[in-house]
Amino acid sequence: DWAGSRLFPLQDDQLHRCYVVSSPDAGAKGLVDVWADPHHLPIATESVDVVVLSHLLEQVPHPHPLLREVDRVLISEGRLVIVGFNPYSFWGLRAWLSRSGRTVPWAERLISEYRLRDWLSLLGYDVTDVRYCLYRPPIAHGGLLARLVALDRWLGRFVPWIGGGYVLV
Question: What confidence tens digit (pLDDT) does each residue in 65-115 have?
């Protein structure tokens, strides 16, 4: 629950509406309230308090119009939370090596936090917080991952900007 936390300082009474935009599969299963093209949201202008984009900017071919559409639906003091993979990490290297497969999460391109900050500044947004995570390499071998816990802690403490993923508010 991010409401009220330091990362996401909203009170429960500030959350007025909640829309979920997802894939047709999730819509067919009744898991979402709204299913729509994220570039053309069926949501009134300045009517949403919070928008969470979880890896969506990485999956669409044109992220700039998507950000403009999100800007349209957000209230003036609304919050935008973006979750993405860091191209300058073990995960970014894995994505670069997987270009031929084009499988999720490597489907389109990874967007760095710095580039995203630049795009958001053009829309008049202020980035209030960024957190990095996923310092261990993206491997499936559980034993090896367990042995890399110390690496995870060390990199997170001393070079946090090379985390595989980030959450930007």
Answer: 999 999 999 999 999 999 999 999 988 888 777 765 555 555 568 899 999
How distant, in Å, are the alpha carbons of 9, 22, 70, 77 from that of 5? 5, 26, 23, 17
5 has a pLDDT exceeding 50: no
Beta-sheet pairing, 74-85 with 165-168: antiparallel
The per-residue pLDDT for range 25-35, each reduced to its tens digit, is: 555 555 566 67
* Segment holding 131, helix H or strand E: strand 130-133
Ordered DSSP codes for 3-28: TTSSSS---GGG------B--HHHHH
The residues, any chain, with a CB within 8 Å of residue 159's CB and separated by 6 or more, are: none
CA 12 – CA 154 distance, rounded (Å): 35
Distance CA 119, CA 36 (A): 23
Q: Which of 138, 133, 141 is nearest to 113 (CA)?
A: 133
| Residue carrying structure tokens 């491997």 | 139
| Global confidence as pTM | 0.78
